[in-house]
């Protein structure tokens, strides 16, 4: 990690709040935890520049305009915009308008914070996104309130709220949840076909031909209404069934691969490992060893 560098222009109103938090050490090993949290209304000359800080920052703009410089890009932050950054990397954010820039923010960390940051980064192709409601803002305000003074429950409540905030950020780019009545009948028919026949040779082209749909239109609409690509949906069905066979039957891995229409055992093993981080045989042995305890 780089040596800590910080250059601040602490120019905010008297009504702004900044709370330093000292969570219990035993909880920091397995929970998200707050390091600092606050609500700022900043004057036009406000800026914060850092590098090498072992922390992650989520900041939501409530009013005014700010700028974020991160990863070689400049992000303009208006009301409703949120960013999520790794503070070990060089960054600067500052008031970019002639009026107060108002925002809620939290510095936090935890065992899975890095993975959450990278998932958000990949989803949004950057570190900033626009919120669709005021839920992130409300959660940050609540997080600030419960951390104004130490309490027996503050660390646990902070973990819950941080988890909710991160979930809200992930949902910004998630596919909408459609009800069954909103999904076109042909997509429902294809889902039923896959659920019945995922062990058969299925492909985008074969399903499009069977249901008289243009392959491009099918691919686009399946992703829109199901939230997964058609190929990914089939693979997940097959991997789930493979896990069931590995746990509750003695079928060899080669036979399971053949059952799932994988002619190449090595391809099936590599695919299984990409989802479970274990080979099929290691997965089976893990469950067998647990049953023998």
Short synopsis of the structure:
By secondary structure, the chain is α+β, with helices and mostly antiparallel strands. It is built from eleven helices and eleven strands. Helices cover 44% and strands 22% of the residues.
Biggest β-sheet: strands ordered side by side in the sheet:
2-3-10-5-8-11
CATH superfamily label of the largest domain: Regulatory protein AraC
**Helical percent range?**
40-55%
Largest sheet: 6 strands, antiparallel
The helix tally amounts to 11
Rg result:
24 Å
Question: What is the strand content?
Answer: 15-25%
Distance between the termini: 42 Å
The average pLDDT score comes to 93
CATH architecture of the largest domain: Sandwich
What series of H and E elements makes up the topology? EEHEEEEEEEEHEHHHHHHHHH
Low-confidence stretches: none
- General form: elongated
Structural class from helices and strands?
alpha+beta
What count of domains describes the coordinates?
A: 2
- Extended strand count: 11
Description:
The chain has 293 residues and is an alpha+beta fold. It folds into 2 domains: 5-171, Jelly Rolls (Sandwich); 180-291, Homeodomain-like (Arc Repressor Mutant, subunit A, Orthogonal Bundle), CATH 1.10.10. Helix content is 44%, strand content 22%. The protein is built from 11 helices and 11 strands. It has helices spanning 25-28, 113-124, 135-146, 154-171, 185-197, 204-210, 215-226, 230-248, 253-259, 265-276, 280-291; strands at 5-9, 17-20, 33-42, 47-51, 56-63, 66-70, 73-77, 81-86, 91-95, 101-109, 128-130. The strands form 2 sheets. A 6-stranded antiparallel sheet has the order 2-3-10-5-8-11. A hairpin with a 2-residue loop joins strand 6 (66-70) and strand 7. Helix 3 (135-146) runs antiparallel to helix 4 and helix 8 (230-248) crosses helix 11. The longest helix is centred in the last third of the chain and has 19 residues, at 230-248. It is elongated.
């Amino acid at each position: 990690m780089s040596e800590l560098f910080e250059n601040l222009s602490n120019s905010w109103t008297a009504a702004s709040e900044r709370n330093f938090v000292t969570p219990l050490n035993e909880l920091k090993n397995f929970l998200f935890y707050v390091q600092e949290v606050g609500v700022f209304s900043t004057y036009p000359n406000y800026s914060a520049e850092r590098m090498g800080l072992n922390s992650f920052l989520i900041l939501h703009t409530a009013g005014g305009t700010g700028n974020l410089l991160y990863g070689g890009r400049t992000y303009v932050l208006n009301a409703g915009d949120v960013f999520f950054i790794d503070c070990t990397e060089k960054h600067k954010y500052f008031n970019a308008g002639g009026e107060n820039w108002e925002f809620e923010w939290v510095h936090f960390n935890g065992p899975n914070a890095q993975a959450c940051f990278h998932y958000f980064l990949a989803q949004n192709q950057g570190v900033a996104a626009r919120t669709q409601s005021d839920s992130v803002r409300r959660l940050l305000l609540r997080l600030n309130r419960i951390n104004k003074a130490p309490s027996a429950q503050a660390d646990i409540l902070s973990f819950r709220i941080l988890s909710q905030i991160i979930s809200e950020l992930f949902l910004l780019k998630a596919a909408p949840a459609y009800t069954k009545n909103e999904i076109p009948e042909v997509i429902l028919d294809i889902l039923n076909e896959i659920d019945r026949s995922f062990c058969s040779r299925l492909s985008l082209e074969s399903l499009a031909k069977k249901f008289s749909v243009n392959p491009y239109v099918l691919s686009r609409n399946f992703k829109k209404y199901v939230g997964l690509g058609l190929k990914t949906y089939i693979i997940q069905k097959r991997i789930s069934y493979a896990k069931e066979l590995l746990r509750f039957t003695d079928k060899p891995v080669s036979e399971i691969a053949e059952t799932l229409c994988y002619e190449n055992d090595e391809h099936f093993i590599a695919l299984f490992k990409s989802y479970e981080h274990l080979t099929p045989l290691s997965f089976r042995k893990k469950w067998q060893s647990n049953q023998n305890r």
